[in-house]
Amino acid sequence: MRYLNSFKYICTGCLLLITYLASSAGPNQDGQTKEQKDTVNVYTNAITVNWIGIVFHPLGGTYPDRYIRKLDPNAYFVIEHGVYSSFEHRLFERTYLKSAASLFIDCANLPAGFLHLGVHFNLLNKQKHIVSLGLGPTLLFREDWHQFPEYVGDEFFKDRLYGKWQYRFIIFGDIEYNYRFSKNTFLNISLFPGGRYLYTLSFGLKHTF
């Protein structure tokens, strides 16, 4: 439970930071917002390449004994290894069409990944900071865990099977924070929510053009 409380504190801190940054982008004396004057973060396309990552299970791992890279006995936090990449194209002001894909080694050391296509909106685009939220269909998949003798199913994938793969569709994208450290390059931190069962963090770089 202490891990869940810690995660809630982290999320609360992030929301407070975003609120502060958004409030500081208010209009100045000439009627323009600071964001309108800051055109550095206006881009047409962007490519992001990240490492995946750290997984948080709010309810603890379903089969913690199977997770070889868990950071605690109940597998609240588990390290995964893989690559996430995405491409964004500007549709309207602050609005982007985003396609994304990922391949990684999951908590049980088996191949997994996801595919996503959706619309992403820049909630905050100010000076060195971009915060965005995405919405759209996402297909998650992993190699079937029924190969493990102790596995009797889980609430997330349930009985969804296609060949040797388990899968699930969700309607969501990710939450991104980007910090600009050069003209066209940002540090990218992305959070991928999976309902109340898991949250995945990835870290990498976004290049705009």
For the biggest β-sheet, the strand order reads: 1-2-3-4-5-9-10-11
Low-confidence stretches: 21-40
Mean pLDDT: 85
Structural class: mainly beta
Gross geometry: elongated
Helix content: 10-25%
Describe the 3D structure.
Mean pLDDT is 85; it is low at 21-40. Strand 4 and strand 5 form a beta hairpin. This protein is 12% helix and 51% strand. It is elongated, with a radius of gyration of 19 Å. It has an eight-stranded antiparallel β-barrel. By secondary structure, the protein is mainly β.
Topology:
Elements: H1 2-23, H2 34-37, E1 45-56, E2 77-92, E3 95-105, E4 111-126, E5 129-135, E6 137-143, E7 161-162, E8 165-171, E9 175-182, E10 185-194, E11 198-208
Antiparallel strand pairs: 1-2, 1-11, 2-3, 3-4, 4-5, 4-6, 5-9, 6-8, 7-8, 9-10, 10-11
